[in-house]
Amino acid sequence: MKGIGKITGVLVWVCLSLTAFAQPRVDVLRCELLTNPIGIDKTNPRLSWQIQADGRNVVQTAYHILVASSPEKLAQHIGDLWDSGKQISDNSISVFYDGKALKSDMEVFWKVKVSTNQGESDWSAPASWRVGLLYYKDWNRRWIGFDGYFDSDDKDAGYLSARYFRKEISLTKEVQQATAYIMGLGLYELYIDGKKIGDQVLAPGLTDYTKNVKYNVFDVTESLSGKEHALGVILGNGRYYAIRQEKPYKVKNFGFPKMQMQIRITYTDGSQQTIHTDDTWKGTTEGPILSNNEYDGEIYDARKELRGWATVGYDDGAWRKAEYVQEPGGNYEAQLNRNMKVMQDLKAVSIIAKGDGKYIIDYGQNFSGWVKMRVQGESGAKVTLRFAESLNEDGTLFRDNLRAAKATDVYVLKGQGVEEWEPRFTYHGFRYVEVEGYPGEALTDNFVGRLVYDEMETVGSFSSSNGLLNQIYTNAWWGIASNYKSIPVDCPQRNERQAWLGDRPISAYGENFMFDNANFYFKWLEDIRLSQKEDGAIPDVAPAFWRYYSDNMTWPGTYLIIADMLYQQTGDIRVLQNHYPAMKRWMQYMQARYMDDEGIITKDSYGDWCAPPATIEEGRGKSADKKYPNPLLSTAYYYHLLNMMARFSEHTENVQDRVAFEQAAEKMKIDFNKRFYHPGGYYGKNTLTENILAMYFGLVEDGNKEKLADRIVTIIENENNGHLSTGVVGTQWIMRTLTDIGRSDLAYKLATNTAYPSWGYMIEHGATTIWELWNGDTAHPRMNSQNHVMMLGDLIVWYYENLAGIKSEENGFQTIVMKPELIAGLDHVDARYESLYGEIVSNWTKHKSAFEWKIAIPENAKAVVYLPAKETSSITEGNKNLSAHKDIKILSADADRVKIAIGSGTYQFKTKL
Predict the structure, then answer these.
(1) What ranges make up the beta strands (E) of 97-206?
(2) What is the pLDDT of residues 57-97, one digit of tens each?
(3) Cβ atoms of residues 39 and 217 within 8 Å
(4) Extents of the domains making up the chain
(5) Class of the domain covering 144-337
(6) pTM passes above 0.85
(7) Do domains 341-454 and 460-803 have the same CATH topology?
């Protein structure tokens, strides 16, 4: 039997010689987790593919990769760059290119053939990647811009008008291939012949530009057909020209907007040409974008539009000659994480006239992005859009929690028929918009809300029989998406929007089940590494746009925790290899500066940040911006990270380090218990967070675990009346700790509470995302974002790993552990996750005396499954008794669970409870 299948992204046709077995297919062929990417500056990129089949237990046994310099050679099965030969391996997600040295701007073609336990495939259809610019000298020209203020700028307010640059070119030959490389800082839009190149927005990704600068790459071959062309670039401020400069000791300012670009052209006759930025370009600041600022918004005067400015023949006689300017200083790097994009449009649910020419628009959902407006009126008419997350009791905008951010867009009409406009270089966090000065009747169709976040797929889904759980999940999705802004910002609305490390340690773990965000977080780890001081200190915010190096464990510790998450979820060993030296240096720095003679890490900056006031009234009108440092937290984290570093040492073959880290952890456990354990069976001041950290991190002596578990339960059930009392630190670990001590029922109670403090309380009080504070409806607005993710903690991880039972055991889900928690009151869960191997499904339903469970395991993966059943004989799969299936291995059985091993495929289990 011959089986024909495909590889997603690039098609791979697989022909297998089989007997009575369903046809396997190979799906998804990727380089660096991207499909057919251009601009890869890795010299040994990671190659991955996916195998799919209708049958079961398909396992890869070998692979053969060919990499060629041309599609013709690849078609002839010539791997002139790399012929891996047949490699006996089950690795299909992390094979590193090991061929000839690659050259800048080189296109590379590859294909793969796999052998499985069911037969051998044919060669896949070709895939490709284009090498980026590998060396500094590949750019070989200078930066251009205008280093200074103009009459169009407002120096006192810190506002710059956008910079426009243009150049006309003449091509004498037919273009075969053209690739544009651009670094436009702070933000850019690239045009050829008046048409924008790409659908990205707010590009490129944010970095500390003195450390590294991201370049974007575009295939512009089709845009350069013909002889005469015009190139145009608009530069916005972004964070290059600092958003706020009144505190230069705090906020980094990098200078005025600037750019460097080149277009590499190969003609059909084989000759080549490169077009560079130089002083033959011309520029102006007299365009319609009068100011652009991430906090304050954009002011656009359509009367000043430069019609045809990026087309051939435009009269640029009044424009200035572009100036050569100083380079940013950072290394030039290809941006492997995708840019931001308009990912979804929202229609307003209502528009209410408020008098005085004002309207309030409600989108029914808190999100980040902007409004695309359609308007018609007289020249000079001004429409003002003000943004907010919620309303005051009188129906006006509540903007007190924006701090100093103006969050306002202004559009001045040119007065020529219907005009359509949206900003280019700003974004807002909002649900409501106040419109002032709109001519005519304001209709919902004239104000489209645009959701903007980093372009990435939603790879997970979760639904259950509990509507509140489902709504919390939906709120989490909107909050997470809203805060993806090339870095994981804390909030999208006020004058902050920084990537605080303390917000994301385990939240990022849960996010990975929802979004294809691996490259996003790979990039952020680099931001953290590059922000490290020579002595080892790591900041609280990275990139360090704010100079906060407070030295504590719980915030910078996120560096290690996310590296661990990425390794676990993707199997990419480079994340540990690349960051191990920096992580080790930070651990040594913290020990040298802050470990006392009794083995305690004495420095903590924030304590359990934003722990809820005891009652909603107790916190009314009060700011949550208070710090309660606690050496128990810093010491517990240091112990946890010592054990993590011991594992990292093993994975990276630093054997001596492993022994040292393990010995240090053993000593610290003793010292920790001497200092913080009380005979009453609790730690420190007996707070919920202190006890949870000791339990989850494994700091408790065996003989004391039961007493500590009782204390944790007593605090929640009795002292907190069935509620949590954790801040951002404790909430990262609470749900899994309760599950580990056998109280998943109590974790479920916390997840489904609607009284304060709880996630359900937020929803009961109108939240459509996740609040920054448990008491976000009554706290002082100074620090009270309505769209944060830090209080998600480990909730989403718990959804997937404990409620659905989908957890990676090793190598990015090649081995999966499936063990859902059965909790009274929860009768159904349906969760799906697109791992690198393929989709994993856990869809279970609990009846009074029976349990049904549909499981899907991707090819080249396997699972250890814990079936809830009293005895093996009561279990069926596909209406056949479990013992009748030769492809299912029974591993063990106890009073509650039957443990089995299964391979790839789809299964339908039924058990008696």
Answers:
(1) 107-116, 119-120, 127-131, 143-145, 163-170, 175-185, 187-192, 195-196, 200-201
(2) 999 999 999 999 999 999 999 999 999 999 999 999 999 99
(3) yes
(4) 25-131, 144-337, 341-454, 460-803, 808-912
(5) mainly beta
(6) yes
(7) no
